[in-house]
Amino acid sequence: MKVLGIDIGGTGIKGAIVDTKRGKLVTDRVRIPTPDPATPQAVIDTVIKLVKEFDYKGPIGCGFPAAVRHEIVKTASNIDKSWLGMNAAAQIRKATKCPTHLINDVDAAGIAEMKFGAGKKQKRSDTTLVVAAGTGIGTALFIGKNLVPNTELGFVQVKGMPGEHYAANSVRESEELSMKDWATRFNEYLVRLESLFWPDLFIMGGGISKKFEEYEKYFTLDTKIVPAKSRNHAGIIGAALSAKDLID
C-alpha cells in the first residue's frame, strides 16, 4: 500500500509517498520550511501544498512534534501554543479531504526503526529507546515491539534544565558548539536516561544521526547505541505506517 507520510518538524515539513509493505520511499522527499509562526492555519496550508505536490488522494500519516492523545495535541514546547487542545488530525482531514492519522513525530520514527531499521531484531523482552535530537529532543520507548506513546523525555532534567535546552541539535548550532562539546553534553543526557530506564538499545535519530560516526566516540554509555538506519526518512516512513488503520 502506498501512503503519504508527513513529518512536521520545527524547521521543516517533509513528505513522501511510502510503500508501507517495504518501508521505502517511492517518491523523492519534498521539504518545505516550517512557517514562522507555526500556527495551525499556516502549518495546515503547508500540508496542503505537500498533498498537491504529490497530486495525492488517499490516507495520510502525519508525525507531529508534540504529545498526541487520540489525535488531540497535548503539549506545545516546540510549536505554536494555539495548537493546544486541537484535534489536528480532524483539521488536516477537513483541509485536504484525505483520511488522516496524527502521531508524535519521534514515536513515528521509532515505529519505522522497530519494523524495518535498527530495532528490527529486538526481542520481546528488550527495551529500546529511540532518541532524536533536532529543534528539541524527542524520544520513543518500546517494550519489545510495543510502543509506549508520548514519553517526551526531552524534559528530563540535566544540569538543572530540560535536556533539550542543554543538548538538542539546535543548541549545538545556536551556541556554535564543536561536535565534541555537543556530544559530551548529549552523552550526559543519555547517561541520565540510561540510569532511569536501563534500555537494551539506544537508537539515535534526527538529522544529526547522519553524522553519528563523528561523535559516537564521545559516548560513555553501558548501553549499545546505533544510528537510525532510515536516518531522517524514519519519521516519514513511520507516519505512513501509523496510518494503516485508515486503509480499507
Descriptive report:
This protein is α/β, with parallel strands linked by helices and 248 residues long. It is globular, with a radius of gyration of 17 Å. The chain contains 8 helices and 15 strands. The N and C termini lie close together (10 Å). Helix 1 packs across helix 2 and helix 3 (105-116) packs across helix 8. The relative contact order is 0.18. The strands form 4 sheets. Strands 1, 2, 3, 4, 5 and 8 form a 6-stranded mixed beta sheet that branches. Strands 11-10-9-14-15 form a 5-stranded mixed beta sheet.
N-end to C-end Cα span: 10 Å
Note poorly predicted spans: none
CATH homologous superfamily assignment of the largest domain: ATPase, nucleotide binding domain
Rounded radius of gyration (Å): 17 Å
Report the strand count.
15
Order of helices and strands: EEEEHEEEHEHEEEEEHHHEHEH
Stated plainly, the CATH topology of the largest domain is called Nucleotidyltransferase, domain 5
For the biggest sheet, the summary is:
6 strands, mixed
Mean pLDDT equals 95
Broad structural category: alpha/beta
Percent of residues in helices:
25-40%
Form type: globular
Q: Please give the CATH class of the largest domain.
A: Alpha Beta
CATH architecture of the largest domain: 2-Layer Sandwich
- The proportion of strand residues reads 25-35%
Count of all domains: 2
Number of helices: 8
Name a few traits of the molecule:
Nucleotidyltransferase, domain 5, 248 residues, 8 helices, 2 domains, alpha/beta
Give the SSE map.
Blueprint: E1 2-8, E2 12-19, E3 24-25, E4 30-33, H1 40-53, E5 60-64, E6 68-69, E7 72-73, H2 88-96, E8 100-104, H3 105-116, E9 127-133, E10 137-143, E11 146-148, E12 157-158, E13 161-162, H4 163-167, H5 169-174, H6 179-197, E14 201-205, H7 212-215, E15 224-227, H8 234-242
Parallel strand pairs: 1-5, 5-8, 9-14, 14-15
Antiparallel strand pairs: 1-2, 2-3, 2-4, 6-7, 9-10, 10-11, 12-13
